[in-house]
Amino acid sequence: MSKPVIPVATVRRGLAIPPLARDPAAGPLVDARGRGLRDLRVSVTDRCNFRCTYCMPREVFGADYPFLPHAELLTFEEIVRVARAFRGHGISKVRLTGGEPLLRRGIEDLVAMLSQALPGVDLTLTTNGSALKQKARALFEAGLRRVTVSLDSLDDATFRAMNDADFPVARVLEAIDAAADAGLAPVKVNMVVRRGTNDQQVVDMARHFRGTGHIVRFIEFMDVGATNGWRMDDVVPSAEVVRRIDSAFPCEPTNPNHFGEVAKRWRYKDGRGEFGIISSVTQAFCSSCNRARLSTDGSVYTCLFADKGYDLKSILRGNGSDDDLSRAIAAVWQRREDRYSEIRTAETAGLRKVEMSFIGG
Ligand code: SAM
Questions:
Q1: Least crowded by CB within 10 Å, which of 35, 208, 238, 253?
Q2: The whole model's pTM is what?
Q3: What is the rounded distance in angstroms from the CA atom of residue 14 to the CA atom of residue 308?
Q4: Mutate to test the pocket of ligand 1, among 50, 55, 205, 238 (most ligand atoms within 8 A of CB)
Q5: 361 alpha carbon to ligand 1 midpoint, in Å?
Q6: For the sheet containing 251-253, what is the strand order?
Q7: Mean pLDDT in the chain?
Q8: What integer pLDDT is reported at residue 259 of this predicted model?
Q9: Using 50, 70 and 90 to split pLDDT, how confident is the model at 236?
């Protein structure tokens, strides 16, 4: 795998904000394909203590990798300001992610600030779980109510190899228990399924979490970024995941919780809970995608597979008003046309795209 000559972070000069397409006061904010805006994902750091082979491979994100300097990161106040502007456009959910969000010092303070500034917003966080046991209670007290924990295998050797940080399964399981004890239940558990790596553990994962109230989501391995060596052959279609689970534990599809929900829900026929599948590769859901992403350094991305984002930091740090911020967000969203997963081919998979650790999963 070749190493990028220029670090991902330093080439990320944000795109200039486009002009408004229509007066945002004229009606609900929709993009060029009629999609609304519901969900904001915020990457609070581009750093992670794991080196998951499919996300931040060690060959690329090594000891000399130039992560963003602290001054480039949005401050908590700036993040809250942007989130408030998004709230003005009707978002109902904010997810903190990264990188590993629990590595950002004072993350509980950000949670508290957001939960106070955005009452009624569904505030959640995605983590690898490595620091969750210690932080779960403080996060709950700060106002977090839900958490998603990534766990790719229950087999210790497989998991250690996939996270490439020699991190044991047992500690993630303890973190899930601690999160539930702190009030963050039910916990969602993300498993990225990669053929020949961990796909033999799908049924074990389903078995382990059935009946616990926690919800596993089986995610198709995606061609995010340009460093993970993605090949279609490595993707296990969600339909195959469902077939395997169904043969062990009969299951049936169930209704979405809301329009645009990323995971399709399946429930066990014996009533022992549910699981989700996220099929970005084989059953693209671009047509209902209502998510915007705020990168660690303050650009808005309107697609997980985009190359560049729109620069909000210059507004934040250039004395822009809240109205400027709000109009910039409206303009970016009105002009949004992305539908990458619907047009994905082996060729598009090789295109330059932002790394997931930079804009948040
Ligand atoms: N560090 C946190 C964590 O581990 O959950 C948050 C960031 S991580 C980028 C967010 C989610 O993206 C994780 O569940 C991870 O497994 C998933 N992810 C990363 N790369 C992926 C890929 N190539 N395909 C599918 N999911 C991926």
A1: 253
A2: 0.94
A3: 6
A4: 55
A5: 5
A6: 251-253, 264-268, 274-278, 215-220, 188-193, 146-150, 122-127, 93-97, 39-43, 291-294, 299-301, 310-311
A7: 93
A8: 86
A9: very high
